[in-house]
Amino acid sequence: MRPRYISLDPLLPWTQMPRPLPLDPLFGRSAPTEVEIGFGSGDYLVKLALEHPGKNFVGIETGWLSIKHALRKLALSGVRNVRLLQGDARVLLKRLFEQKSIGAVYSLFPCPWPKKRHIKHRLFDQPFLRLLNSRLGDGGTVLIVTDHKDYYHWVLEQAEGSGFVVDAELCPPRYFTKYEKKWLDLGQSRFFQITMRKTTHMSIPVEEDITLKTYCIPRFVPEFFHPKGCRDGVVVEFKETLYDPLRQKAMVRALVVEGNYIQNFWVEIAKEEKCWRIRLAKGCGVVPTAGVQRALDLIYQSAQATNA
After folding, report:
1. What is the DSSP secondary-structure string of 232-290?
2. Strand 82-86, strand 102-108: pairing
3. For residues 48 and 42, what is the distance between their CA atoms, to the nearest angstrom?
4. Predicted pLDDT of residue 283
5. Taking the chain (308 residues) in consecutive chunks of 10 residues, what is each chunk's mean pLDDT?
6. Could you count the other beta carbons within 10 Å of the beta carbon of residue 51?
7. Where along the chain do the CATH 3.40.50.150 domains lie?
8. By C-alpha distance, which of 148, 154, 157 is closest to 192?
């Protein structure tokens, strides 16, 4: 089966790369860098790159389907000044980009999470706007376009105290994205556009990885191993445990939720010469956060209890 994305070259394996990202080497040149958050199918991202060959562009998305569509469009268009990142924009901007390293940020038709109980999932709250501010250079801009009136007013409220001057207006269809076309087909001919220009710098240093602690226990009895999660600020749940008696290795699948950030990964308990080692399984691509360490701690406590 042939892949539809043609080439994976623009997709950055950021969990295996130095942080913050060395932007100039990634593009092979020094040029202003701009970021689109939630690029959907990649139409606007490709358009920006074609219209501004003297700039570098980074697209951020959470889902593989959008990444796949964008990779194909980048290859077919011959664009070379775009790189893609898959992940949560909050995490990526905190960890991968230095302060004042970005010239502009775009987000067209972000999910408005219209239900009241889902407002906590909205992206452009004040803490995130302050983070964007810190990553933008002096005079840098943020462009947000939405079809949702309540979301528009909510973003304007969040912008207060985030170091931006704000210009808000109704705009005609002009971006030609999938969601703009969808709302046009449903009869909406005007959209809400918010442009923010940085005037005051909000200093937020790059968030560094923590060094994860691994464990070694003298004895492990898989029959008595039943790891328990927690919900004390960080949510840790253990979804399944597998054990291979021939290889003398147990695998535990963990789910960790820290705020809006969710990670699924495997932890292994493997027999070594003098002990059983508890550590992240190879190839997980985990962001080493406090929640991941909490999962390791809980597995260690449960594994240690099998010695009793």
Report:
1. SSSEEEEEEEEEETTTTEEEEEEEEEETTEEEEEEEEEEE-SSSEEEEEPTT------H
2. unpaired
3. 10
4. 85
5. 77 92 95 97 95 98 94 95 96 97 97 90 96 98 95 97 97 82 78 97 94 95 95 95 96 94 95 95 90 97 85
6. 8
7. 14-198
8. 148
**Entry pTM:** 0.88
271 forms bridges with which residues in the sheet? Answer: 276
Burial of 214 (0-12, 13-18, 19+ CB in 10 A): exposed
Q: How far is residue 15 from each of residues 24, 38, 287, measured CA to CA in Å?
A: 18, 19, 7
Give every strand in the sheet of 164-171, ordered side by side: 82-86, 56-61, 33-37, 102-108, 136-146, 191-198, 164-171
Structure tokens at 73: 């469009």
Specify the fold of 14-198: Rossmann fold (3.40.50)
Strand partners, 82: 57
Instruction: Give the CA angle between residues 183, 188, 193 to the nearest 5°.
Output: 85
Residue that is written with structure tokens 């508890």 in the block: 278
Do residues 46 and 73 lie in contact, with contact meaning Cβ atoms separated by under 8 Å? yes
Token pair in block for residue 173: 């269809």
d(CA 29, CA 171): 35
SS3 content of the chain, % helix, strand, coil (to 5): 30, 30, 40
Rg of the chain over Cα atoms, rounded to whole angstroms, equals 22
Contact (Cβ atoms closer than 8 angstroms) between residue 236 and residue 265? no
